[in-house]
Amino acid sequence: MSLCAIFGHYLVFIVVLMPTLVPKSDGKCAFEAIFNFGDSNSDTGGFWAAFPAQAPPNGMTYFKRPVGRATDGRLMIDFLAQALGLPFLSPYLQSIGSDYRHGANFATLASTVLLPNTSLFVTGISPFSLAIQLNQMKEFKVKVDELHSKGHKGASNLPQPDIFGKAIYTFYIGQNDFTSNLASLGIGRVKQSLPQVVSQIASTIKVLYGLGGRTFLVLNLAPVGCYPAFLVELPHNSSDLDAFGCMVSYNNAVVDYNNMLKDALHQTRQGLHNANLIYVDTHAVLLELFHHPTSHGLFFYSTCLACCG
């Protein structure tokens, strides 16, 4: 199954930057592992492994108990792993019960691309920014190579050293860089930092390419101007709302960022021989769901209103 088929099944539209991904003759993906970098949108337990405190209803829909995801069900990264025939990703920070033979998840709730200049206990921003996650990935590869070279028994739950060229590297991060300071700084000042965010993602891909990575999947930002929490928290007036109740100025800023990210990935691809950089337009899919929920089986009279509170 090609990646386009996989994400088409899960309502994600993919734009593939040349050269395109070509499926094997048997129609199955050849990826043997996933290495994920991100925030709560793809955290499978990293944050709660570092700061244990999770309680129900997290996890109650699918897992029937809290399992480290900031949701009561599964995440997109879970569905991707299933579609590739791989197990759910173990968090890098989870010391008990982890199996890294098919990759690792470096994502943590509340992570940013840029290094935070504040404390988790002051603003709630995770200390595990993208740069830290990248350093963890580097250390992971060093340990894999070292333990396998020595025939160490501790390598039994680690992948083979050649896995890094056979893996897909996924990025679902950047939303917290955009939203965490919106209320205090305003949209204008936040937009000034977005080129740095894009640059950091591009430079991280280059480093991973140097470690052997060849296929990179980068998800763009969602239309946060439609999120009920931000409609409550962020300053706006009725003239800034579109026909669906979403904040136009914030969504326009997201579109500007997404275009910047897409252009940066295209430019980055030009300097990486035999690499695949895939830009995933989650924004278009989620905006469609916000605008026309009942057309997709979501029976809400308004997706821009909170269910409670």
Automatic annotation (TrEMBL):
Gene3D superfamilies: SGNH hydrolase (3.40.50.1110). InterPro entries: GDSL (IPR001087), SGNH_hydro_sf (IPR036514). The chain crosses the membrane at residues 6-22. Keywords: Glycoprotein, Membrane, Transmembrane, Transmembrane helix. The keyword Phosphoprotein does not apply. The keyword Transcription does not apply. Pfam families: Lipase_GDSL. Belongs to the 'GDSL' lipolytic enzyme family. This is GDSL esterase/lipase.
